[in-house]
What we know:
Layout: H1 2-31, H2 38-53, H3 70-93, H4 95-99, H5 108-117, H6 121-130, H7 134-144, H8 146-159, H9 161-181, H10 193-196, H11 201-271, H12 276-310, H13 333-343, H14 345-368, H15 410-479, H16 485-519
Helix pairs in contact: 2-3, 2-11, 3-8, 3-9, 3-11, 5-7, 7-11, 8-11, 9-11, 11-12, 11-14, 11-16, 13-15, 14-15, 15-16
Amino acid sequence: MKTSGFPRSLAWLAILLVLASAGNGEAVRSTRPASDPTxxxxxxxxxxxxxxxxxxxxxxxxxxxxSPGTDEALERSRVEIAAARDRWTRRIEARPSLQxxxxxxIPAVIVRRVDAMAGDARAAGSILAKGASCxxxxxxxxGRNPEVQAAYEALxxxxxxxxxxxxxxxLVSRYRSFTRELDTRVGPQSHKEMSEKxxxxxxxxxxxxxxxxxxxxxxxxxxxxxxxxxxxDAGRGYVQVYFDGRMIALxxxxxxLVSEMEALTRTQVAAGVAxxxxxxxxxxxxxxxxxxxxxxxxxxxxxxxQVNALMGLTTTPWGGVRDPGLAMDxxxxxxxxKRALSNSxxxxxxxxxxxxxxxxVRMAESMTYxxxxxxxxxxxxxxGAEAGPTRSMMAAFPLRQEPDVQRAAFGAQAAYLDELRxxxxxxxxxxxxxxxxxELAVNDAWARVQIARRTLSTQEREIVPRARQSxxxxxxxxxxGRTSFLDLLDGARMVVMSSQxxxxxxxxxxxxxxxxxxxxxxxxxxxxx
Length: 529
């Protein structure tokens, strides 16, 4: 019985093995599609990789329907990033190209002269001591302003991110390849989760290169914004210094006028025509004029110090201050609004912020979301294309796995992407707000320019000539005793006040004109004549 039972048991064992293998085969077939999709999936995967790796280039393939492999797409992305880095290197080294139209208006000879000695504070101070002009001051601000220099160095720092985009991603790729192949066989394989939720490396590298270019463009706009603000502040400061000098000279002229009036009053007192009180009033007015001239001189020193700070200079006295010679014409409001919308650095940065956030969402989606073309769900694991040399060509297309508690880890990533999308909406709202602010700044500056121009015209053509004529008439009448001293004093005060009002109106017009140019995205250099 034992010898006959052994073959029977062996037969039953063979039957069980056949059934088990058949069941396993059925289980395997149940997890695979009915037809072998290997070739189609590989082709679709490579097409998707090529499309994502050419975010910026837009270069078509040399052969219709041809799709580069992962290595080719990776190399092309690196080449594109290197080319972008070289372009930015040339732009950064040629600083005049970064400054663009902001220095247009400064004579080239002054720009070359300042560039030759911009780093020498003593040479810059010696030039200003011989005499200051508005083009010279603006050129020194462009070459020496500390904030402008800091913005330039920030641009250079962002430029270093081009190499990081390629090198750091390569390190991460190597780490993912290592962790994907490492099997500890002890405990949960949690070290593989990051690499299992990663999309193709060439796509991520291309998007990172795009982000670095956007960061460089934003840094360039911030540099131009800082330069524009420094130039406009210097322009307004120079106008104020020139106005201080004009007011000092005008006060000196008026002091002579009041001094003549005081001498005339002294003569009238000696003749018994005027009283001692009239003489005291004239002397009081004369003392007020002297004090005003001294105050203006001290204010001029403070205003020069502010402009010197913009030029990165310490206490540096100026020689003669030339007329700014700024343009008096005012463009139309419609033309200024159009120019502001195309030249405003604030509006351009708002556009770049929106594009940057949208690119970040695209990159985050490519890194966290699986491909739907092979039947994955939003909670299924995805496998990147940079698996490593030990994996097969189909490593990017493993069998579909059922999600469970350990592998359904896309909830946090989805929440992160939702946050980024909300930030995109916020960036778009900020862009709309920036546009409104630009239009408001142009309208406000344009209105102030119109008011200042009308005030200046009225003072020059109407008030000052009549005030001087009235004073001359009163002076003659006072000499004959037909006009009282108080009337003569009021006439002198009117001449002084009207003369000062003309200079103040001219100062306000030039400052508001610089404000208008700044609101339109330009600088005070555009007003030089």
